[in-house]
Amino acid sequence: MSEVFDVIVIGAGPAGENVLDRAVRGGLTAAIVEDRLAGGECSYWACIPSKALLRPVELAGEVARMPGMSLGPIDVDAVLARRDEAVSHYDDAGQVRWIEGVPATFVRGRGRLDGAKRVLVTEPDGSQRLLTARHAVVLATGSTAAISPAPGLREAAPWTSHEVTAVTSVPGRLVVIGGGVVACEMAQAMHGLGARQTTVLVRGDTLLPRMEPFAGELLAGAFAAAGIDLRTGTEAVRVERPEPGGKVTVHLPDGPPVEADEILVATGRRPATEGLGLESVGLPGGESVEVDDSLRATGVAEGWLYAVGDVNGRNLLTHMGKYQARACGDVIVARAKGAPDDLPALRATADGYGAPQVVFTDPQICAVGRTEEAARRDGFRVRAVEYDLASVSGAYLLGDGYQGRAKAVVDEDRRVLLGVTFAGQGTAELLHAATIAVTAEVPLERLWHAVPSFPTVSEIWLRLLETYGL
Ligand SMILES: Cc1cc2nc3c(=O)[nH]c(=O)nc-3n(C[C@H](O)[C@H](O)[C@H](O)COP(=O)(O)OP(=O)(O)OC[C@H]3O[C@@H](n4cnc5c(N)ncnc54)[C@H](O)[C@@H]3O)c2cc1C
Ligand SMILES: NC(=O)c1ccc[n+]([C@@H]2O[C@H](COP(=O)([O-])OP(=O)(O)OC[C@H]3O[C@@H](n4cnc5c(N)ncnc54)[C@H](O)[C@@H]3O)[C@@H](O)[C@H]2O)c1
């Protein structure tokens, strides 16, 4: 016996929930299937807890840079208690209530595709429930941490983003593998919350390799100043942990091994498509689901399958998953009603510009659009300008020893911005202005008239434009 809905969503993370909301607002019926907690990775084991752990560390840094102010040791128990509140004590009752109020049907269990428009759910008690979609099935199953292949690493039961964001006791000695966003944020959080020896092993020669080079350099300087042992051009070649939960030894290509009490692997993500039944609809299993700009899976007959968020591999960020979800929910409604389905709002075109991203380290690293290197690779005639943020009055007033830099990448043919990067304290809230300038392709001559207030960090806009020659 099958239950029929207009739309079925698998995965109740931020992306899945937003598709559901838009589809129901458009007049369709919908069900959402979730096998862990409604709210997804973002709410419980990613964005929210990581930022709850990072903010006190950032604040302590800010206080330390302000002459005349001092701070006692951070009360780690209080920080962890606030993190627990931020993740609703790992209880999704509020999210489930929200889903039911949409109104939509919440189904707890593991969903998988079982042929065209059919979703088979295995409920927690092992019973099976078949759901059938009239119009669309949306995959919103997210991603899971990829464990790099060093011998012995998997057997050592390393922490991933899950365990580190849910930490109940900060390890004394932590070794981190990876130099991307999770590695940078979590190394700084754990070190700031009391790890006395934090070692970060980076395979390449820089942190945050997809960003402008100065971002990784400034962060490396902050790591050094904080006593974080950053080692580039190296990797874990073998890991030993003879006792479960005991001491970890990480062997490197050269030199003595690193010993630690805990090991965190932060070497990227894998799409959560294992066991999702993709093969039953003719797609390869275990891979990202390729979609067009309307978030419709390519290569599926009759176009009823969609994928939003991390699972499609376009931009692994909550805000981009939610953006895709709005377009996806609305385009499903348009197609179900036979309405025009090619309006600009029904295409996730911003995925292609270079998504805005804030790395919540101290200094914050914020970027949107293309780096200079990416812009040149894409064939633009480019001129880039940089400016030392410490020379801006608003930045100086934030405290002593301000370290920061900004860069704007200009398309010389159209005199519009292709990308902007800020690194420095107080820059996260500057990023949306840059996102508007890049997305709306505001000509530099118009941008000149957007006068930043004095004395704010935003004055960097004026300095960048002056450096460009306006
Ligand atoms: C440590 C960390 C920090 C991060 N910080 C930020 C940040 O500050 N800002 C930002 O924008 N992004 C951040 N991200 C990225 C962000 O978490 C993801 O981009 C976002 O969670 C993706 O949302 P989603 O809805 O696609 O998937 P998810 O949030 O992963 O949700 C997917 C849901 O689907 C469920 N599911 C999976 N398979 C099935 C199945 N077969 N049946 C039923 N349910 C299923 C899962 O249980 C999960 O609840 C961070 C990531 C990490 C790891
Ligand atoms: N503030 C934020 O916006 C935020 C915070 C955390 C995570 N995220 C998102 O979550 C996603 C996952 O983050 P992440 O840091 O795990 O991935 P990432 O892709 O940002 O970084 C992974 C790093 O690991 C390195 N690496 C890969 N394989 C390796 C190996 N075998 N040995 C050593 N190093 C290896 C890569 O070179 C890369 O630098 C990212 O796309 C990120 O944007 C966002």
UniProtKB/TrEMBL annotation:
One of its GO terms (molecular function) is flavin adenine dinucleotide binding. Residues 356-461 form the Pyridine nucleotide-disulphide oxidoreductase dimerisation domain. Gene3D superfamilies: 3.30.390.30, FAD/NAD(P)-binding domain. Disulfide bonds join 42-47. NAD(+) binds at residues 178-185, 268. Keywords: FAD, Flavoprotein, NAD, Nucleotide-binding. Residues 5-317 form the FAD/NAD(P)-binding domain. Binds 1 FAD per subunit. FAD binds at residues 51, 111, 141-143, 310. Its cofactor is FAD. It comes from the Bacteria. Belongs to the class-I pyridine nucleotide-disulfide oxidoreductase family. This is Oxidoreductase.
